[in-house]
Each structure stands twice: as structure tokens, then as C-alpha cells.
Amino acid sequence: DAKTTQPTSMDCAEGRAANLPCNHSTISGNEYVYWYRQIHSQGPQYIIHGLKNNETNEMASLIITEDRKSSTLILPHATLRDTAVYYCIVKKTSGSRLTFGEGTQLTVNP
Amino acid sequence: DTAVSQTPKYLVTQMGNDKSIKCEQNLGHDTMYWYKQDSKKFLKIMFSYNNKELIINETVPNRFSPKSPDKAHLNLHINSLELGDSAVYFCASSHVTSGGSYNEQFFGPGTRLTVL
């Protein structure tokens, strides 16, 4: 699975959009971009995934660049409960394994 | 209803003891996993079972033995516990489509194991 690079930490004001970047320059054609998050002392939680088109669900939006070498997870109106470590993971859907990196610690401030 | 549950939530034990952590999912998934999160917060997969068959077995000491009595359960037994086994252990499950694609994983709340 391709390696990903994320900033170590980010801050966001409550009510504003949180934009979390991820670089995956070695992604291959059949690899998807997945986002999970881990709120303190809880198990990781799936957020969203995509291949090349932008995706949106009730939690977030995922914007993938045309060359697929990077993506951005957008939380449109961040709340204090969105404070968590966010993991960007690249993998094929045929693979069961999730390989977690260090992720980005997002802190939403009042 | 809890989707993926683990027991116990906390486990404190002495070095050398044998202990088990239980995991159950009520989502009807056919694949289950064990992950370990160490003190530096790195999450690493340990094992994965699909329909009670082992499909992933990372480089984990053979003191760790997963057991899947049925598709809804994946237990983790640890023999001769060592200090370095102290960590949070997460169970997860996912569905596999007929085309062989693994859907998103659902994680349990974790079991914090402390070995003294």
C-alpha cells in the first residue's frame, strides 16, 4: 500500500471548516484513499473514502486532486467533538489490512 | 446496540500470567481483526480472520493466539505476559463483498492491558 504524509497537528476554530491535507504521491491506480479518525480513548472511526471523484457524506467531504497524489478531508463546520487524530490511509479494496501512520492531531478550539 | 464490543475494558495483570480478551460483533460481518496500539499511539494490525480462517498474521510473538469460534467472535489469548505487551488492543470487523472488496472497518472501544 502507498505511503501517506500528513501534518502532525492542526488547529481549527469551532464552526469553521477544517481542511486536513494528505500526500500520497506513490498511489497506484487501484488504490483508494480512506480517512479514519480516533477520538481520545476510543476506537478508530471510519469517515469516508474515494478513488478519484470527490466524495461527500454526512460527516465530511473528500477532495482528491486530478493526479490523485494528494487529497483533503474537509469537515465543513468543525465542533469541539471533532477534536481527534485523523488518519489518511491508502489501500486497495481487495486488501483487508489498514496501515495506520501517525495521523494529524486536529484540535478544535472554542 | 453496540456494534463491536470487547471485554474487559481494562485488564491489569502480573508478568507471566495468561489472559484472554474477547470480541463480539453483531453486524453480520465475516472478517474480524485485532490491532495493537502502543504507548506511542501507533496502531498496528496483528491478526485478521475471514469466516473463521486466519488471513493476516503479522510478526507477532506466538504467545499471542487468536481464536474465532464463529464469525461473530474473535478472541485473543496471550500466554506468559510480558511488560512490553502493555498496550490498548482494538478489535474490528468489516464486510467482504461478493467481489472480494473489503468495506470499512468498525472498531471496538478497546481493551487497555497493563502488565506489572
Molecular structure report:
The complex is a heterodimer of chains A (110) and B (116). Chain A is mainly beta. Chain A has strands spanning 9-13, 18-23, 31-38, 45-50, 55-56, 61-64, 70-75, 84-92, 104-109. In chain A, the strands form two sheets. A five-stranded mixed β-sheet of chain A has the order 1-9-8-3-4, with no helix packed on it. A four-stranded antiparallel β-sheet of chain A has the order 2-7-6-5, with no helix packed on it. In chain A, strand 5 (55-56) and strand 6 form a beta hairpin. Chain A is globular and about 40 Å long. Chain A starts with 8 loop residues before the first strand and ends with a strand. The model of chain A has no long low-confidence stretch (mean pLDDT 94). Chain B contains no helices and eleven strands. In chain B, the strands form two sheets. In chain B, strands 2, 4, 5, 6, 9, 10 and 11 form a seven-stranded mixed β-sheet that branches. A four-stranded antiparallel β-sheet of chain B has the order 1-3-8-7, with no helix packed on it. The radius of gyration of chain B is 14 Å and the shape is globular. The model of chain B has no long low-confidence stretch (mean pLDDT 92).
SSE diagram, text form:
The complex is a heterodimer of chains A (110) and B (116).
Chain A: E1 9-13, E2 18-23, E3 31-38, E4 45-50, E5 55-56, E6 61-64, E7 70-75, E8 84-92, E9 104-109
Parallel strand pairs in A: 1-9
Antiparallel strand pairs in A: 2-7, 3-4, 3-8, 5-6, 6-7, 8-9
Chain B: E1 4-7, E2 10-13, E3 19-25, E4 31-37, E5 43-50, E6 53-57, E7 64-70, E8 73-78, E9 87-94, E10 106-107, E11 111-115
Parallel strand pairs in B: 2-11
Antiparallel strand pairs in B: 1-3, 3-8, 4-5, 4-9, 5-6, 7-8, 9-10, 9-11
Please give the alpha-carbon distance between the first and last residues of chain A: 37 Å
Spatially, the strands of the biggest sheet of chain A line up as: 1-9-8-3-4
Q: Would you report the number of β strands of chain A?
A: 9
| Total strand segments of chain B | 11
Spell the H/E element sequence of chain B: EEEEEEEEEEE
| Major sheet characteristics of chain A | 5 strands, mixed
How would a crystallographer describe the biggest sheet of chain B?
Answer: 7 strands, mixed
The best one-word shape of chain B is: globular
Greatest contact between two chains: A-B, 20 and 26 residues
How much of the sequence lies in strands of chain B comes to over 45%
Terminal-residue CA separation of chain B: 34 Å
Overall pLDDT confidence of chain B? 92
Helical element count of chain A? 0
Shape call of chain A: globular
Helix and strand composition category of chain B: mainly beta
Fraction of residues in H or I helices of chain B: under 10%
- Oligomer description: heterodimer
